[in-house]
Amino acid sequence: PQEEQFGNTRKLLEQLIGSDADILICTKSDLVVRDIDLLKKLGRVTVSWSINTLDENFKNDMDSASSIERRISAMKQVYEAGIRTVCFVSPVFPGITDFEAIFERVKDQCDLFWLENLNLRGGFKKTIMDYIARQYPDLVPLYDEIYNKHNRSYFEALEVKAEKMAKKYDCAFVDNEMPYGRVPQGHPVIVDYFYHEEIRGTENTGKRNR
């Protein structure tokens, strides 16, 4: 990757030392481990990894970034260095993303576990629907219900499942990101960001426009 060659992110982090900036790094790479020494010198830092599957074959169909195992390993190293981490489970692909299995893998090494549904708009919709028809034909009826007939029951059921998971593991269950902070290990804040266009403002209201 170009960052490995040119190190522009590292140079930027060096410039931010001593500032009061809130820093959020969103990545699909494990290269961030290289910069742990700098991240520890900064104040409010959050590093987030996109992980919406544990299936490397599906991951490879979606992107050419670092493997899921390398992302999880990097998250662990950054978390153990005392830096706030996020597992960004997005987009949640109906019938494919098993967020409970992902949670079991990362719950001891992240502060925030973020759930966001797959949105299909414009030309991207046809690309994904064609992919599902080709690779997961059994899921075509489900995707038709959700994305053509606008049936919300699938994601509503996932919300219920996520809330039960939060109660089981004594995790806060919110509709938006908490203010910067760490949480006890094994109890990440679970963010229900399904249908996020209905969430009011940027505070944790616990209310949606339904």
From TrEMBL:
State whether keyword Iron applies: yes
InterPro entries the UniProt entry points to: MJ0683-like, rSAM, rSAM_sf
Keyword annotations of the record? Iron, Iron-sulfur, Metal-binding
Asked if the Swiss-Prot or TrEMBL record annotates the protein with the keyword Secreted, the reply is: no
CDD domains assigned to the protein according to its UniProt record, in alphabetical order: Radical_SAM
Q: Which GO molecular function annotations are given, in alphabetical order?
A: catalytic activity; iron-sulfur cluster binding; metal ion binding
Q: Which SUPFAM superfamilies match?
A: Radical SAM enzymes
Q: Which residues form the Radical SAM core domain?
A: 17-99
Q: How is this protein named in the record? A: Radical SAM protein
